[in-house]
Write a structure and sequence with these properties.
By secondary structure, the protein is α+β, with helices and mostly antiparallel strands. It has two domains: about 5-165, Creatine Amidinohydrolase, Chain A, domain 1, CATH 3.40.350.10; about 170-460, Creatine Amidinohydrolase. The chain has 17 helices and 15 strands. The strands form five sheets. A five-stranded mixed sheet has the order 6-5-4-1-7, sandwiched between helices. A three-stranded antiparallel sheet has the order 8-9-10. Helix 1 (about 5-20) packs across helix 8 (about 155-165) and helix 11 (about 275-290) runs antiparallel to helix 12. It is globular and about 70 Å long. This is Xaa-Pro aminopeptidase. InterPro entries: Aminopep_P_N (IPR007865), Creatin/AminoP/Spt16_N (IPR029149), Creatinase/aminopeptidase-like (IPR036005), Pept_M24 (IPR000994), Peptidase_M24B_aminopep-P_CS (IPR001131), X-Pro_dipept-like (IPR052433). Keywords: Aminopeptidase, Hydrolase, Manganese, Metal-binding, Metalloprotease, Protease. It holds the Pfam family AMP_N.
């Protein structure tokens, strides 16, 4: 954990932003895989971690803003639990570690919430994303599930987003710690993706590396020669020379900060001429986007810049007609690049999106587009110093999408469908890094992970 004073300062800042009332933060409970005693690996709620830092199940906390008091709720285990789990810190010991003086039982939390509801005090809570939390809140506050969903506090949500979005130097150190593991995972994959090797074998190597360091994955690994399937979690293929493999893999730090990195690997050690053109275009797109990032620049504009550079970079393949600016402004570019440029990253790999994508990524005069492609951009608002965002342009040839748009003759004056059809077996390419917004620009976090054509080919052919 961070120093106790860190959590006290975060709670004080939260109370100041929310203003008055009670703030309820629920930690997560163990989640059964198939029966009560066989559980998934525990992962604490990220907002609970941010303000209370305790990585144990069955905890909750209440911040009484008006009384300037934080209380930790839980129950100490008895002899039966010690037999199965070994001795655990007491509730009081856990509270002391995060600068909380007041501890009470779970039963007392229910009583306190009931009393607050009877007296008309405002109870601020975040939108619950687990069914058991929704049910628990509905029972304690005597409301329907629909009312619980509708009653999530706007003031608390905005305050949490504002605070969690700006990363401290200690948080950046945690993210770079996670990136050190990601570096090793990706270098291992580049040297292992050879003809005749099954995708699952390489996924196992990466997962094993993370596990050997006591780390959890930040998200399920995407490692596939079917890179045009954006979130493909199948690993059944045997690699062959000439394949392109998209490897989207990251690990967590000891305090659960995420890394999120994507590289694309040429199986056999060399990109063919067509692959080389597209790969360099994606890389140039990413580098141009990073160079343009600084406080005050709307990320939506950076997305459009990345799309223009990508379209210009594939000009030799004659995929589009006319000026790159027209292709991007008209939305035709999304046939090649159908997702957003990136998102916040921190304690969650898609940081805070459990609080609502639009609440996290939009506002400040920026509204979410309904256009295909741009509507998948999770972050559009102006960048701020201290934010960490992913930058992950890609180029994909998705046969079903090509066929649908060609049948509709969508953007026919801007798209050369014959050229796209000739590339329908290409699959996809994506390159992604985690980028800190600094006072006057941006910095890619972590040790540089090979991504130039020369660097990737050298590792893939070694």
């Amino acid at each position: 954990m961070f120093a106790p004073a860190t959590y006290a300062a975060r709670r004080a800042a939260l109370a100041q932003k929310v203003g008055s009332g009670l703030v309820l933060l629920l930690g997560n409970a163990d989640s059964p895989m198939n029966y009560a005693d066989n559980i998934y690996h525990f992962r604490q709620d990220s907002s609970f971690l941010y303000f209370f830092g305790l990585d144990m199940p069955n905890l909750a906390a209440l911040i009484d803003i008006d009384a300037d008091r934080a209380t930790l709720f839980g129950d100490d285990g008895g002899l039966d639990s010690i037999i199965w789990t070994g001795p655990l810190p007491t509730l009081a010991e856990q509270a002391e570690a995060v600068a909380v003086a007041d501890t009470r039982s779970h039963a007392q939390l229910a009583e306190q919430l009931a009393e607050a509801a009877r007296s008309g005090r405002q109870i601020h809570y975040l939108a619950p994303y687990r069914a058991e939390q929704r049910i628990w809140l509905a029972e304690r506050l005597d409301q329907t599930l629909a009312a619980i969903d509708a009653g999530a506090s706007t003031e608390l949500t905005r305050a949490v987003i504002d605070l969690r979005a700006v990363k401290s130097s200690d948080e950046i150190a945690q993210m770079e710690n996670a990136l050190e593991i990601a570096y090793r995972m990706h270098v291992l994959a580049m040297g292992s993706a050879r003809p005749g090797v099954r995708e699952q074998e390489i996924v196992g190597l990466m997962e094993g590396l993370a596990t050997s360091q006591g780390r959890a994955l930040a998200y399920p690994i995407i490692f596939s020669r079917d890179g045009h399937i954006l979130h493909n979690h199948g690993h059944a293929h045997t690699l062959k020379a000439g394949d392109l493999v998209v490897n989207d893999a990251g690990a967590e730090s000891p305090l659960h900060y995420a890394s999120d990195i994507t590289r694309t690997i040429p199986v056999g050690g060399r990109f063919n001429p067509q692959q080389r053109i597209v790969y360099q275009a994606v890389l140039d797109s990413q580098l141009a986007a990073i160079a343009a990032m600084k406080p005050g620049v709307p990320y939506r504009e950076v997305h459009d810049l990345a799309a223009r550079v990508l379209v210009e970079g594939v000009a030799e393949l004659a995929l589009f007609k006319g000026r790159a600016e027209d292709v991007v402004n008209g939305g035709a570019y999304a046939l090649l690049f159908p997702h957003g440029l990136g998102h916040h990253i921190g304690l969650d790999v898609h940081d805070m999106e459990g609080l609502g994508e639009n609440e996290v990524g939009y506002g400040d005069g920026i509204t979410r587009s309904t256009d295909f492609g741009r509507r998948s951009l999770r972050l559009g608002r102006p960048l701020r110093e201290g934010w960490v965002v992913t930058v992950e342009p890609g180029a994909y040839f998705i046969p079903a999408l090509i066929d649908r748009w060609a049948a509709e003759q969508r953007h026919a004056h801007l798209i050369n469908y014959a050229a796209f059809d000739a590339c329908r077996d290409f699959a996809g390419i994506r390159i992604e890094d985690d980028v800190l917004i600094t006072a006057d620009g941006a910095r890619v976090l972590g040790k540089p992970i090979p991504k130039t054509i020369a660097e990737v080919e050298a590792l893939a052919s070694a």
